[in-house]
Specification:
The protein is an alpha/beta fold and 472 residues long. Among the domains are: 152 residues, Hotdog Thioesterase (Thiol Ester Dehydrase, Chain A, Roll); 151 residues, Isopropylmalate Dehydrogenase. The chain has 13 helices and 19 strands. The strands form three sheets. Strands 11-10-9-12-19-18-13-14-17-15-16 form an eleven-stranded mixed β-sheet, with helices on both faces. A six-stranded mixed β-sheet has the order 1-3-5-6-7-4, with helices on one face.
Length: 472
């Protein structure tokens, strides 16, 4: 029996060299990417391919293969292996005995049953068995075999990355599964995306929104876009500044346990949140975290602070890091790896961020920052790439594995986050920490999906706050 090899060249077996009984096999393991890519190429998004629990998840992790995926393996073996290059498929008859599911390893075998000298056609029996030896596909194929040996260089196929924001959003939303919706003040949702984001988050049972703003404008946006406001509460105020003040009042009165920015300026909302007279300050410095799900990085990564603290001091960074570590604990990372970024990975007295990094690491050693593993200074490449870190001789449990990136200032952090979102198709969520309640803080240009992702984080924080209050 002939098995597929990884030789540099493909070589055919011409008709005269093929005998009845000759056989050849290849092995393939079905990956989630295979099912998704086949669906995208063929346009076949048949929901029957998924079991009921995962049919609408977008994950494809429990999907079965399209029947024609298995059939395509027959084409692969005939065209590349036996008879090989130059083979033309004339006719095939296949029977699909059982489904192929994610993780199944399929052995495809073709065996010569009959030869026809007058037209150099060959009939082959085909069988596909899974890893348990069970038949999944059987049948036959009639081919025109090559008349002469053909030898051609094997084409190296490119790696394909499927960047599916929707699927990644569903994974994030699943984190809040089973939690009751939280009461959230949505501040001035007077454009399409901010209102849509709030309504979709409500539909996903993440929040019960209080829509705060000029009622006529909110209803006009809903009508213009075909949104159903249903029974959602609208708190009528005259303008965005009054909406921000009302939202903070609702928090202080206990009517809501989270805020979400709508179509007003960040400064307008945050001025009310940080007000020393009647805001939502705590003993902790208020900071912002971008949580990013980047297709090319193996785990979610946080970037802080890229929206609130313009040029944070060393003491500011202590709170910024502790806020991010506490959030990491809430979302299920018990000891997050914290990379403190700079332009270089060595301490340089002329670069303040490297001095801050060294001091922060020592403060963590002394228990002044708790719950995370810190290292720095680290350049961005060393923080996210193990290869880059090893090339530079950096021996660190954080380098190349960072869960949290602590940036030197707002400008650098904002640039990193926006580059990942717009150039790397990252799914992002934005949340303000250190206030008495979580504040969903997104750009006015952000999509409803970003707002939903941010509401998931806010919901997780709000429920964690409830538990903490019960304990205390």
């Amino acid at each position: 029996m002939h098995f597929e090899t990884s030789l540099e060249y493909l070589e055919s077996r011409p008709y005269d060299e093929i005998n009845v009984g000759d056989t050849s096999s290849l092995l393939r393991t079905l990956r989630p990417e295979d099912v998704k890519l086949f669906a995208l190429m063929s346009g076949d998004m048949n929901p029957a391919l998924a079991n009921a629990d995962f049919r609408h998840s977008g994950l494809f992790r429990d999907f079965i293969a399209h029947g024609m995926w298995s059939a395509s393996l027959l084409s692969t073996i005939l065209g590349t292996q036996f008879p090989g290059p130059g083979t033309v498929l004339i006719e095939s008859t296949l029977h699909f005995a059982r489904p192929v599911t994610i993780g199944d390893t399929i052995t495809v075998t073709v065996t010569v049953r009959q030869k026809f000298a007058h037209n150099q056609h060959i009939i082959l029996d085909c069988a596909c068995l899974n890893q348990e030896g069970l038949l999944v596909v059987s049948g036959s194929a009639e081919v025109l075999a090559p008349a002469a040996k053909i030898r051609t260089k094997r084409t190296v196929m490119p790696e394909i990355t499927i960047s599916d924001k929707y699927a990644r959003l569903q994974v994030l939303v699943a984190r809040a599964e089973g939690l009751a919706p939280i009461d959230m003040a949505v501040v001035h949702p007077c454009d399409r995306e901010s209102l849509r984001g709030a309504l979709l988050a409500a539909e996903a049972k993440l929040i019960d929104p209080f829509l705060i703003g000029p009622e006529q404008r909110i209803r006009a946006v809903a009508e213009e876009n075909g949104f159903d406001l249903g029974s959602h509460r609208i708190v009528n105020v005259k303008h965005s500044h009054e909406a921000a003040a009302m939202a903070v009042t609702l928090v202080r009165s206990g009517d809501v346990e989270a805020l979400m920015k709508g179509s007003l300026h960040t400064d307008e909302l945050m001025a009310e949140v940080v007000s020393r007279a009647g805001g939502l300050r705590t003993a902790r410095r208020i900071s912002h975290v971008f949580m990013m799900d980047v297709p090319t990085y193996p785990r979610p990564i946080m970037i802080t602070d890229a929206a609130i603290n313009i040029l944070p001091t060393l003491q500011d960074k202590v709170d910024i890091i502790q806020n991010a570590i506490d959030l990491a604990h809430i979302i299920g990372t018990p000891e997050p790896k914290v990379a403190i970024l700079s332009a270089v990975e060595t301490v340089n007295p002329k670069i303040q961020s490297t001095l801050d990094a060294a001091a922060l690491c020592k403060m963590a050693d002394r228990g002044q920052i708790k719950g995370g593993l810190l290292d720095g200074p680290l350049a961005f490449d060393n923080a996210v790439s193990i290869v880059a870190a090893k090339t530079k001789g950096i021996d660190s449990a954080v380098a190349g594995r960072a869960d949290i990136l602590v940036v030197p200032d707002l400008e650098s952090g904002n640039m990193i986050a926006k580059q990942l979102e717009y150039l790397a198709n990252a799914l992002s969520a934005g949340i303000v920490l250190g206030a008495s309640v979580p504040v969903v803080l997104t750009s006015r240009a952000d999509t409803a999906e970003t707002r939903i992702a941010s509401c998931v984080i806010a919901a997780l924080i709000a429920h964690a706050n409830r538990k903490r209050e019960k304990v205390n």
